[in-house]
Amino acid sequence: MTIRVAVVDENEIFRRGVVACLDDSDTFMVTSASSEPLVGAAATVVDAAVDVAVVSAKAARQSELACPLVVCANEPFAVPDDGPVLALLPRNGLTAEQLAAAVHSAAVGLKVSGRRLELPQLDERRIRILRLLADGATTAEISQSLRYSQRTIKGLVASIQLELHSRNRAHAVATAIRGELI
C-alpha cells in the first residue's frame, strides 16, 4: 500500500527534509509540496489526491485541508479531539522514523498524541522491530532483515504489542512514537 502525502511548510529547508525522508521509503509517495497554506480549490484538489498531509503549525491553522494532518510544531499547538490533526510532532529533533511512523499511523486513522508516556524499557531487538514496522515492513521482510524466523518475529511483535498495551502493529508504532521509543 502506497500512502500519498502532501507537505505544506513555509520553511523550505524543513519542507525539503520532510519530502526527502518520505521519498526515501517505498511506502510513501509525496504528491505535492507547498510553502503556502492551501485554501479553496487548491485545498480541495490536494484533499482528493492524498491520504495524509504533513504541515507546519501555521499551515494547520490557515489551510482548509480536510485530510488527516500530521503537524510538526515547536510551539504549543492545541489539537481538538474532532479535528483532522491525528499527529503532533516536534520540529526539533524529529527523526525520519518518527515522521514515517506518524504518517503511517495517520493514514490508517490512529491519533498520535504529543504528550509523553511512561513506557516499559524495550531491548534493542524489539526497538529495531518497531522501527521496521514503522517503515511498513512485513513479517517476512523483518525476518529477512534481522535474520530471525518469521515465527520468532511474530512472537516478538505480539510481545511488543502486549508490553505497549497495543491493539495491533500500527497502534504499537503510534505508542512507541508518543513515548519516544522510536
In total, the number of strands is 5
Quaternary organization: single chain
Main sheet attributes: strand count, strand direction, barrel closure: 5 strands, parallel
Uncertain segments: none
User: What's the gyration radius in Å?
Assistant: 16 Å
Q: Output the helix-strand order.
A: EHEHEHEEHHHHH
Strand content: 5-15%
Distance between the termini: 22 Å
The spatial strand order of the largest sheet comes to 2-1-3-4-5
Number of helices: 8
What is the topology?
Layout: E1 3-8, H1 12-23, E2 28-34, H2 40-49, E3 52-56, H3 57-62, E4 69-72, E5 85-89, H4 96-107, H5 124-134, H6 139-146, H7 150-163, H8 169-178
Helix pairs in contact: 4-8, 5-8, 6-7
Description:
With 182 residues, the chain is of the alpha/beta class. Helices cover 46% and strands 15% of the residues. The protein contains eight helices and five strands. It has helices at residues 12-23, 40-49, 57-62, 96-107, 124-134, 139-146, 150-163, 169-178, and strands at 3-8, 28-34, 52-56, 69-72, 85-89. The chain has a five-stranded parallel sheet with strand order 2-1-3-4-5, with helices on both faces. Helix 4 packs across helix 8 (169-178). The longest helix is centred in the C-terminal third of the chain and has 14 residues, at 150-163. It is elongated, with a radius of gyration of 16 Å. The mean pLDDT is 89.
